[in-house]
Amino acid sequence: MAQTLTSGRSGGRPVDDIPPFAQLFPLGLQHVLAMYAGAVAVPLIVGGAMVGAGELQPDDITHLIMADLLVAGVATLLQSVGFWRFGVRLPLMQGVTFAAVAPMITIGNSHGITAIYGSVIASGVFMIVAAPFFGRLVRFFPPIVTGTIILIIGVSLMRVAAGWFGGGTATGADFGEPKSIGMAFLTLAIILGIERFAPDALRRVSILLGLVIGTIISIPLGMPSWDGVGEASWLGIVTPFQFGAPTFELSSIVALIIVAIVIMTETTGDMVAVGEIVGEKITPQRLADGLRADGAGTILGGIFNTFPYTAFAQNVGLVAITGVRSRFVASMAGVLLLVLGLLPKLASIVEGVPQPVLGGAGVALFGMVAASGVRTLSRVKFDNTNILIVAISVGVAMLTEAKLSYTDRTGDSPVDVSLDLYHQFPDWFQTIFHSGISAGALTAILLNLLLSRGTGSPFEKEEHGGGHDAPRSGYVDPTDALEAAEADERAADSARSPGASAP
User: Which DSSP category does 170 fall into?
Assistant: First the structure.
């Protein structure tokens, strides 16, 4: 072990090599920094919404951040190191997905936070069960569908960024103060400055650096809220089911299973992409192993009070940039995430970052998610049918995202009343369609099936696209790669069979 730490070890294949610790640690830290801002955004968004709904206390957000990082570390180790039939054994980082944010907030508002965790666990079980068969399902998710869904995710999240931008919607009369708006725009300007003038290594973490620099600048203005940092302990343990035993609502489970299918499609693309980078073929069996790891990480997320997990594709781009193909670099990053998940003080510091600073970073982060959807859609042949698929899917999604209200003037003073489009429908329908992501995803899938004429490919090939958790990632169409892998396996079986000619 000492020799491995000092000199590294050859594993026979580049993906199995272990670099010396002097290289392994900084490479793993780089992966953590690349994903950190996106990883902690989800517990901040969902936790904030649940605090507003009365389901959580403000201090509980610290626990959500700790749980998020801890389970991300475990899921990354499972994916990169592997255990039995779990894990693709490639340098993939795991983190919570933006795709589940809106459906989980809808579930929490309708059925409580325990229903979120019951649905997360159920969706993880679905992912494990469906993993061996998913290669046959992925053909139903061409770029016209995945690009539309990613676009909807980014646009839907922009409402969260707007709330942060104004200083937080819970502040009431203080919302939209010039100081808050100015700080948010300054954070956004810092991110743009890093993107324009910094070297590539810093540009990869521009959003994280924008958060750090913006927070430092905001300290003299008294904007950070770190009252709980002094009370937080240095070391803490994340406990399972801290907010109660999970409850299982059928409509909530259906909503997150829709998200799970989207997650599996994106993870398939990420695995194919990283496989090409490191020179490893992704066979259907290996794909199933990776998707099982996604499902196992998601189940752990539900148990430890966090959310669904997927491969973070910005780290796939980082593998391509560094040229380091060892999966143990991702394993090192997983260990670092585990350690970070045991530090309540760090989670409390993150929870205290000023909301306008989060808003400036959120505009960039969520806007890049939406732009990734546009980039994926750029591969589509936009005839009238495909334009209609995208237009109607986005339109149906925005029906629930749009703000509807009227002013009741029957009393002594006018009162603004919010309207709920689907309030007269059954609970199961509201749970699914109150989330623009669920409604838009269902619409895109069904319209693609109904309107596809089956006359050739509906999209053009292009080298680059994007994933919803990775604005800078390269998009690889998983259907092509899986069909090639299946053909290779059939050829290999034929060559091994008696009487087959020598290759």
Answer: G
